[in-house]
Amino acid sequence: MTQNETQLWNRLESFELDEKDAKLTFSTRLARENGWDKNYTLRVIEEYKKFLFMCCTSPTAVTPSDPVDQAWHLHLTYTKSYWTDLCKNTLNTEIHHNPTKGGENEQQKFNSFYTGMQELYKEKFGTAPPPDIWHNNQTRFTDIYFQRVNLSRYWIIKKPKVKLPKLTIPLVVISLSGLIIQASISNAFIGIFTVFMVIAAIAHFKKDTKNNRNGSSDCGGSCSAGSCSNESSDSGCSSSGDSGCCSGCSGCGGGCGD
Predict the structure, then answer these.
(1) Rounded CA gap, 165 and 117, in Å?
(2) Using CA atoms in the order 39, 145, 213, 199, what is the torsion angle rounded to 10 degrees?
(3) Could you read off the pLDDT of 122-155 as tens digits, one per residue?
(4) pLDDT tens, position by position, 146-172
(5) How far apart are CA 253 and CA 134, in angstroms?
(6) How far is residue 176's CA from residue 194's CA, in Å, rounded to a whole number?
(7) 18: Cβ–Cβ under 8 A, 6 or more apart, which residues?
(8) Secondary structure letter of residue 24 according to DSSP
């Protein structure tokens, strides 16, 4: 790091997101909203600070991991902490949060930014980013289907990771067809109900398959340093100030752009 970069990193390291007198702190809220334990949450916050550092020092755009992005999303809701304490008093510049426009071109661009970020991380911090926070590119841009769920009303049951062969659906349909015919002879209602369930199951399977193939096209985001007026047509950034650190967000997790 240069002398100026070292000073910037020292300021970021000493920046506190948790208010001492708060009963519900930033880290507690971040852990609760994502189902993380305390230690992992504190590590994510540390990586979030490193992302901010790279945003302000990288000659090109960089993209955050999803856990880091979740910390960024939440911090934006603490408007005084983010805009005044962080941007104005710590970074001396504004970092704007702009959603991806979606589509294949955006996906390719942000995939490239994410790869470049990993190299920059090694250069600035002398080690590879932790893989349990900075996931590989494949996971980063496909593991994106998140929704808010009220855990007091619903149970969360993990789907088994089973890759079904291409002949699975035809074999299931053929097998069930015999049962449908047999059931419809003895009970018309059971036959109709069985047909409906088979159609619904096939439709759901095809939807999941399509989502898995196309999921990466609508997820991505970046942060870039330097004059954002030169980057706006490419990364969708905007900033104020001469040193203009600018950013985009991933659009994943339902929090982007709210």
Answers:
(1) 36
(2) 130
(3) 999 999 999 999 999 888 888 878 888 888 898 8
(4) 888 888 898 888 887 766 666 566 666
(5) 16
(6) 8
(7) 25, 26, 27, 28
(8) S
Whole-angstrom CA distances from 50 to 29, 124, 239 are 20, 9, 20
Assigned token pair, 145: 């289907």
Count CA within 13 A, CB hemisphere, residue 240.
Answer: 5
Segments making up each domain of the chain, as ranges: 3-144+220-247, 168-214
The CA distance from 199 to 192, in Å, is 11
Q: What are the tokens at 106?
A: 């955006």
d(C-alpha 28, C-alpha 25), whole Å? 5
Virtual CA dihedral for 30, 32, 38, 43, nearest 10 degrees?
-30
Question: Which amino acid belongs to residue 187?
Answer: N
Write the DSSP symbol of residue 160: P
Please report the DSSP string for 201-244 in residue order: HHHHHHHHHHHHHHGGGG----EE-S-GGGTHHHH-----SSS-
State the Cα–Cα distance between residues 10 and 67, nearest whole angstrom: 22
